[in-house]
Amino acid sequence: AFQKIVGYTQTELLKMRFFDITHKNYLSRNQTLFDKITSEEASRFSLDKKYVHKNGNLVDVRVHSGNISDENGKPLFAMAFIEDITERIKAEENLKNISRRLQLSTESAHIGIWDFDIKKNIIHWDKRVFRIYGIHPDNFEGAYEAWQKGVHPDDIQRTDKEVQEAIDGKKDFHTQFRIVWPNGEVRYVEAHAIVTHDQDGMPQNMIGVTWDITALKNTEINLIKAKEKAEESDRLKSAFLSNMSHEIRTPMNGILGFTELLKEPQLSGDEKEKYIHIIEKSGNRMLKTINDIVDISKIEAGQVEVSKKEFSLNKLLLEQFNFFVRETETKGLKLIYKPIVSDSESYIISDQYKLESILINLIKNAIKYTESGSITLGYTRKKIKGKDVCAFYVKDTGIGIPANRISAVFNRFEQADIEDSRVFEGSGLGLAIAKSYVEMLGGTISVSSEEGRGSTFMFNIPCLKKNQNESDAKQCGDKGTDLSFKNLSIIVAEDDNVSKLLLEKILENDYNKIIYTSTGKETVDKCRENPDTDIILMDIKMPDMNGFTATELIRKFNKDVIIIAQTAYSLTGDKEEAFKYGCDEYIAKPIRKESLFEKIRACMNKKSI
Fold first, then answer.
1. Are the beta carbons of 143 and 123 closer than 8 angstroms?
2. How many CA atoms lie within 13 A of 479 on its CB side?
3. Backbone angles phi, psi at 335, to 5 degrees
4. Does residue 153 have a cis bond before it (omega within 30 degrees)?
5. 112, containing H or E segment
6. Residue 69 burial by CB count (10 A; 0-12/13-18/19+): exposed, middle or buried?
7. Where are the beta strands (DSSP E) in 256-408?
8. Which phi and psi (to 5°) does residue 11 adopt?
9. Most buried of 92, 108, 183, 498, CB within 10 angstroms?
10. Residues near 78 by Cβ (< 8 Å), separated by ≥ 6?
11. pLDDT > 70 fraction of the chain, expressed in percent and rounded
12. Are 391 and 438 in contact (CB under 8 A)?
């Protein structure tokens, strides 16, 4: 047998020593043990070593050796039993490799392995399961009930049922559930297991794996939310586009239809006045829709900037009151505004134009949804969390808001999504625009409402202010006396023929001298040739040179001429850009005579001051 192990014949072996066929790594240890059994009484040893086979291969062996002594204890013979364990070593190594690969794969995948002894009701976890459950091994009792403590309360009943069904052989154990870490954090796990049985066929062990799927689950949840949000957005935008088609086509129908009727020669004066009023109303409605679309587009694109300056809130609210009082009276409503803050205390630093837009949207919204009663607007100064704020309100006695829609009134396109008989004209963007502007100014907005009894919209913005006495405020707020334009010279820079014709009709009877130009360069040249020019209406978008550049060039040789920027684009920053290049005022098309003359008067008063 030994010949077979090492490949040598008996004749060859009798001429050799064991050390001649022992691998060099084992010589020293082998020599020490051999010396013991040849010199000590009743000496024994066992040694795993490698022999070098005749063919050069290494052979794993286990040597059991000892001595036989005489009656005096003197060693006489050494005996050895040699066992070839090569295959056993290979099997053990393979098992170790498999174990290492399993360990590597479970660790890489963050998979924990566990074993539930069903008969003893004891659970054994490896270190990865403890990490998954966020538990230190010392804090785990090992019983089935201890595992249940870590399962989310809402998932315990279901998972316990699934464990029992697996033990009973009704179904495989493959499930997902939530666990709760000791610190309260909720995580998601997935578990698979098989049930082993004893020789009598009774359930013995449940062996399984568990891994953390929190990141995957959160991604899944976020994807579902994103999908729902996208579907909701698509639905709202579809409703919005449908509503916009209605909101543009309806006033266009009024404008085009009644314009056609105005051509009829037999119309009476009253009929003409009625038709013109309908055309004007339809135009205003369409303009409001377009302005809302432009505003919300700028907000969506993040192109709206905040431009702060000092102004009077009392003056601003009074202007809003005067602007809307005729509209409310026409509808049979009472508009109420009673200032409770003194003029000297009403000055703040904020974005006046955005605050105007907020108030306009809220007041228009109140007028739209109120059929009888009153609308009240106002503001007060107070402290919220130690900070000075201006708290505004617009209160109406209108139809109110259903309880299930209060949380949605500030959503974009929401008006277009109301599916009942009380849909009112409008883009459904006004409140969304107001909310966005309030937040840009550093404030918050809210609403309280009772269906059938009215609504109150409230918003606050920070009260930033500079010291200014009442006399200064009065001077800045004074519009001055009404001015005559008969002795004034004006240059109208306008490249659009329709807009030019409109301005001709607005200005023809009010000014001493009017010069029309159609390019930026021509405007600069005419201003240089006519140094006595008092006012320039500067179109921003013109061929060869835009109005901003033309204004900048004019300011190099004429600091006094009043320049009012006018544009049909009304893009974000145009107003601020106009002031930066040297314009005195800004007006957006379509231009109304009253608004234009008011801006001209304001500019002339400032120049005279």
1. yes
2. 11
3. -100, 125
4. no
5. strand 111-117
6. middle
7. 309-312, 334-337, 347-350, 374-384, 387-396
8. -60, -40
9. 92
10. 34, 37, 38, 65, 66, 67
11. 88
12. no
